[in-house]
Amino acid sequence: MTYCVGIMLEEGLIFASDSRTHAGVDNFASFCKMNVFERAGDRVIVLLSSGNLAGTQAVISLLRQRASRGRECSLWGAESMFDAALLVSDAMREVDRRDGQHLTDSDAGFNASFIVGGQIAGELPRLFRIYAEGNFIEAGDQTPYLQTGETKYGKPIIDWVINGSTSISDAAKCVLVSFESTMRSNLSVGMPIDLICYARDSLDVRMRRRFKPGDAYFTELGRQWGEGTREVFRRLPDLEW
Amino acid sequence: MTYCVGIMLEEGLIFASDSRTHAGVDNFASFCKMNVFERAGDRVIVLLSSGNLAGTQAVISLLRQRASRGRECSLWGAESMFDAALLVSDAMREVDRRDGQHLTDSDAGFNASFIVGGQIAGELPRLFRIYAEGNFIEAGDQTPYLQTGETKYGKPIIDWVINGSTSISDAAKCVLVSFESTMRSNLSVGMPIDLICYARDSLDVRMRRRFKPGDAYFTELGRQWGEGTREVFRRLPDLEW
């Protein structure tokens, strides 16, 4: 499995992804699921991938190869984040056309999906989730975040804490706790965690961190969070019978 | 779906269940999923049911009918909670023998499962989870709680807060927040919530509450929890880049 989150705030965007891939519990590995297409002053496009690794890698390779050849039909040439999402969708369908039937014949099937977000000069930041079929949804005011993969464990903490006006700083801490909660319950999600906090209109990635196993900040965050929540419970009004 | 939780603490046991049943989103109803077999001074046995409603009701009806006829082969005669769990398992397999093939023929299948816990005089409190197949596991020191149904949303909060030595009072509040988190994310789990806190060696149910939609305590608990967690995040150390 996988866990990826994208959040759209008034201050900017947050992206986070885990790194675990596996085929059963006896065959797991670590791959970065975060890909960035960045040209300072012009655009920042972040892709978070989940699903079958062969599929997501093929899509990213196609997008990188086209980008390396220039602007035409590539993420460097996209005039809006909507166009960028269409290009990712097109690449997904191309991989599906090539591999889909072969996978279906083996009872598998193409199942890559992506969170795509960022900002292109002249536009506000935008955030999309592209389904395996290539259709997609865009985050809005009422639902400012999108998740893929093993989403349930880490959802309540985001619901409790984050809305559009949450600061990047608080939202980043919340996302890390959301990952801590998920990894504690599910072996298929694992470190390192990749985190990008993109400040609106910066058109530049200035805040990027990778949290490896044993990371001192991540460990301390989890400890203080656990202590803090237990303290909140002690202060909550007791039930009367 | 459903959400049920049983927790084994040094101070006693906690049981909680939601009340929503549904067949698709356009056909939902409310049924209590908590059943109690109680004889003060002798035994308290609590069953939380999840799965197909026809199946769980048939199991409970069988157990009630046998109990009404006396001690033999009934929950009134069980000499231990292990024997009580075996009786529930036997009833499940009996219903499966009657209905299973008919359900499988319609692409459904028997899928009732139960959390069974309580205390019988002469024994310590015990807590079991019985799978649809009728086999079961028992909670222990390292994993003092068992869930069924839509378990993922509400699991992290229990992991953060509860261990065997948590007080009944704090654990009850935590379980209610676990339900609040689940209902916020999943339409298939809904109020009323039934809650029993059983004090070890009391052999009597003295703390039982039903939380209906709009319950003042439940609403206030959720509000204060949300406020408390946001405050914890503000105090957590900020990330440095």
Tell me what you see in this structure.
Chains A, B: InterPro entries: Ntn_hydrolases_N, UCP009120_prtse. Chains A, B: This is Peptidase. Chains A, B: It comes from Pseudothauera lacus. 2 copies of one chain form a homodimer. Chain A has about 240 residues and is of the alpha+beta class. Chain A has one domain (about 5-215): Aminohydrolase, N-terminal nucleophile (Ntn) domain (Glutamine Phosphoribosylpyrophosphate, subunit 1, domain 1, 4-Layer Sandwich). Chain A has helices at about 55-70, 80-105, 155-160, 170-185, 215-235, and strands spanning about 5-10, 10-15, 20, 30, 35-40, 45-50, 115-120, 125-130, 135-140, 145-150, 195-200, 205-210. In chain A, the strands form 3 sheets. A 5-stranded antiparallel β-sheet of chain A has the order 10-1-2-11-12, with helices on one face. A 5-stranded antiparallel β-sheet of chain A has the order 5-6-7-8-9, with helices on one face. The longest helix of chain A has 25 residues, at about 80-105. The N and C termini of chain A lie far apart (about 45 Å). The interface between A and B is large, with 44 and 44 residues.
